[in-house]
Amino acid sequence: MRKTQLVLLMLGTAVLAGFATVTPAAARDYPWCAQGGEYDYPGECTYSTYEQCQASVSGRLLYCDRNPRFAYGQGQPAQPRPQRRARPVAPY
User: Fold this and answer.
1) In this structure, is residue 90 part of a structural domain?
2) Rounded to whole angstroms, how far apart are CA atoms 37 and 92?
3) What residues contact residue 52 under an 8 Å CB cut-off, 6+ apart?
4) What range defines the domain where residue 36 resides?
5) How many domains does the chain have?
6) What angle do CA 71, 47, 64 make, to 5 degrees?
7) Is position 41 within any domain?
8) pLDDT one-digit tens code per residue, 33-54
9) Alpha-carbon torsion 48, 43, 69, 22, what sign?
10) What is the pTM of this model?
């Protein structure tokens, strides 16, 4: 009985630790949106190029337009680049 309780406690702790380390997926907006039809404004903004968007909306009574976040300069902020670490200089 004691071993079962210990195993369940360890399993519960492992599950909680797993949930604690999960990070949410970063949302990313792309510059082109499929708009119209079943999509609310601004639409389905998942296209990197106009051509990708056009291929997706073909035959679906939708149209492509710029993502308003990009059109008005409110796009995702640039991710800071990690600083390069200089190699230590060997003493002579």
Assistant:
1) no
2) 71
3) 32
4) 27-73
5) 1
6) 65
7) yes
8) 999 888 888 888 999 999 999 9
9) negative
10) 0.49
